[in-house]
Design goal:
The chain is α/β, with parallel strands linked by helices and about 350 residues long. The protein has two domains: about 45-155, no CATH class; about 165-345, Rossmann fold (3-Layer(aba) Sandwich), CATH 3.40.50.300. It contains ten helices and 15 strands. Strands 1-3-4-5-6-7 form a six-stranded antiparallel β-sheet. A six-stranded mixed β-sheet has the order 8-12-13-2-14-15, sandwiched between helices. Helix 4 crosses helix 7 (about 240-250) and helix 7 (about 240-250) runs parallel beside helix 8 (about 270-290). It is globular and about 65 Å long.
């Protein structure tokens, strides 16, 4: 689990828990925290593509000017580097690493120019350093254009966390849910999750994986009691689909004890009356798999539902993001579970 995180020009988050809820005003940096964690654990081209798709209208990313225009949006100062430092604690060990994200304006800035393809200027570099292994040379990932083709070049690089799920406000791709559910069925681990979910949503009689013509890669379908229909989860209800997709990701067999789930505006689309049941299911699943959750919210109903079901305050924290209106500087503070629980039940303003 990630125990602490530092983003350059952002405060350090220490003593993070299994479930971490991020609060704060609009433009206080809540989504930025999720994106920083995702890039720090996933430093390559795929992460940039995915985050761009969730934030802004799609552009032809394969064109050099468009690509670097998108990348520069992540930098407060595009002539400085972005730095992420992460401390990941396992049951019996600790791993620390630093990820630097740099736009190289001149290829002469590269330390090993002879070992790379003939990149055009500029190019993007990720530099990954394992802080607890000072004798090991930093690993580098280079992204740029050669003959107008977008290329990623790097040596052997082990991903820091093997599996990550990032949920933006948009509905997730149905085939990904179908693949996870198929894995659970194959391992005979699906019944507990499906039975619990159907208790929360009693109108759903069954949950199926089908491969119709309009979903050639397969999708999750709900069998509804009244009216008697079978419908893709995405078409039945965006909130129900979102709940099920997040729970499926948390139950993914690949995620056990080494994964992370990031959810932007977790309450969006989920009715307040279902929120407590949703949190209970997510808590049960993540307790079993021991994966970590970071989620943003603006909703007091969401926070109250959450603390009502948490058995151990030590297993969650509130991260409160703030922006100083006078200086435009961002900061964030971690509120441990026992203090967060008291504040929420006392209706103190921590949104």
């Amino acid at each position: 689990m990630i125990n602490s995180l530092r983003i350059e020009n952002f405060r350090c988050f220490k003593d993070l828990a299994r479930i971490n809820i991020i609060t704060g005003d609009n433009a206080a940096g809540k989504s930025t925290i999720l994106e920083a964690i995702f890039i720090a654990c996933n430093p390559h081209l795929q992460a940039i593509r995915m985050l761009n798709g969730s934030r802004i209208p799609p552009l032809p990313i394969l064109q050099k000017d468009n690509f670097f225009s998108l990348v520069e949006r992540y930098f407060n100062d595009p002539y400085s580097r972005i730095v992420f430092e992460v401390d990941k604690k396992n049951s019996d060990s600790s791993e620390k690493w630093k990820v630097e994200m740099i736009i190289l304006r001149r290829l002469s800035e590269l330390s090993t120019p002879s070992s790379i393809p003939p990149f055009q200027e500029p190019c993007l570099e990720f530099k990954i350093t394992e802080n607890n292994k000072p004798e090991k040379k930093p690993e580098k990932i280079l992204i740029g254009f050669t003959d107008n083709n977008l290329v990623q070049q790097h040596g052997p690089f082990k991903e820091i966390l093997p599996n990550k799920f990032f949920f933006s406000n948009s509905i997730q791709i149905p085939s990904e849910s179908a693949g996870i559910l198929s894995s659970l069925i194959e391992k005979k681990e699906e019944s507990v999750l499906l039975d619990a979910f159907k208790k929360v949503y009693p109108e759903i009689e069954d949950i199926l994986i089908l491969v119709p013509a309009d979903f050639p890669n397969g999708a999750v379908f709900f069998k509804i009691k009244d009216p008697d229909i079978i419908i893709p989860s995405t078409l039945y209800s965006s909130g129900t689909h979102k709940s099920f997709t997040i729970l499926l990701a948390a139950a993914d067999p690949r995620l056990k004890q080494q994964g992370i789930i990031l959810v932007d505006e977790i309450e969006n689309g989920i009715h307040w009356s279902r929120m407590q049941s949703f949190w209970r299911l997510l808590d049960d699943v993540t307790t079993k798999t021991q994966i970590q959750v970071f989620a943003t919210t603006h909703s007091y109903e969401c926070l109250e539902s959450f603390v009502d079901i948490m058995k151990k305050p030590v297993e969650f924290t509130i991260i409160h993001a703030k922006k100083d209106p006078k200086t435009n500087e961002f900061s964030a503070s971690v509120i441990p579970g026992e203090f967060a629980e008291s504040a929420i039940k006392s209706r103190l303003e921590i949104r």
